[in-house]
Amino acid sequence: MYHPGHSWLHRLHPLVKLAWLVAGTVFVFVVRSPWAGIGVLALALLAFPLSRLPLGGLRGTGFFAVFAVVLFLIQVVAHRTGTLLLRIGPLRVTTGGVSAGLYVAGRLLSVIWMSYLFVLTTEPNALAYGLMQAGLPYRYGFALITALRLVPVFEQEGQTVYQAQLARGIAYDRGGPRRFVTLARQFFLPLLVSALGKVDALAVSMEGRCFGKYPRRTFLRQVRFTRRDALALGVLGLLSLATLVTQLNR
User: Fold this and answer.
1) What is the DSSP string of 130-165?
2) Residue 41 and residue 35: Cα distance in Å, rounded?
3) Is 29:246 a contact under the CB 8 Å cutoff?
4) For the chain, how big is the Rg over CA atoms in Å?
5) What angle do CA 218, 16, 11 make, to 5 degrees?
6) Rounded to an integer, what distance in angstroms lies between the CA atom of residue 157 and that of residue 215?
7) Strand ranges (DSSP E) for 61-148?
């Protein structure tokens, strides 16, 4: 899902971007204000055109938007504190309900769009190399790279199995729960066999190359920490300190 580019955000160190993602997530959960989530969401959406990333066509955005609206409506109905804004029969819409709905929906969407931003601007190999250079054992780094690379492979295999079963007359849109279990078994069994075959071939290949013989390894690519990264970390530190002071003084 990585989208290549040369923007300022693309060129940041992967661990710096990871720190911003973690700090932003903690911020929207710690600061219990609807404007916190809405502000972070607005900044995340603004970063998309600035980084020349497509806002439309991202997988799952429609589902998350509908889910956020459902959460908003649930909070509006459940909370009845504050000033009454609207009353329709037993339904009462208050300022407290609207505030709670905006807080929950904004928090969800801000975390999701920040995660999209991180994934679209961070090359998986660079993230793994950065983690390994920071001290992560290279076995775990290799596991991370392998998992990220096998995801699109298994997705393509799933599409192949699905289309092959449709060509053989299997109808996925008919039947009850018992048939659903049967279809799931018929779908996942070929994927499991394919996955075991790929893992076995990968293990034999790693053993043939003496993977894990040495405690340390060299890197073909060096993910370097630059002044740009130091500036981004400095700004993050100042914002985190300001947030901490504000929360303690409340």
Assistant:
1) HHHHTT--HHHHHHHHHHHHHHHHHHHHHHHHHHHH
2) 10
3) no
4) 24
5) 75
6) 35
7) 84-88, 91-94
What's the rounded Cα separation, in Å, for the pair 38 and 25? 13
Contacts of 75 (CB under 8 A, 6+ apart): 97, 100, 101, 103, 104, 105
Asked whether residue 116 carries a pLDDT value surpassing 70, the answer given is: yes
Quickly tell me which residue has 């804004």 as its tokens: 85
Distance of CA 117 to the CA centre of its chain: 8
Q: What is the mean pLDDT of the chain?
A: 85
The residues that bridge with 91 in the sheet, in sequence order, are: 88
44: DSSP letter: H
87 has which bridge partners? 92
**What is the rounded CA–CA span in Å between residue 120 and residue 107?**
20
Q: What is the largest CA-CA distance in the chain?
A: 73
Q: Which residue has the tokens 């956020």?
A: 68
Contacts of 221 (CB under 8 A, 6+ apart): 125, 126, 129
| Domain ranges across the chain | 14-122+223-248, 137-208
Contact 100, 190 (CB under 8 A): no
Going from the C-alpha of 15 to that of each of 3, 5, 132, 217, the distances in angstroms are 18, 18, 11, 20
Q: What is the pLDDT of residues 171-206, one digit of tens each?
A: 776 766 777 777 778 888 888 888 888 888 888 888
State both tokens at 110.
Answer: 């801000």
Let me know: does 91 contact 77? Beta carbons within 8 Å: yes
- What gap in Å lies between CA 112 and CA 154, rounded to an integer? 24
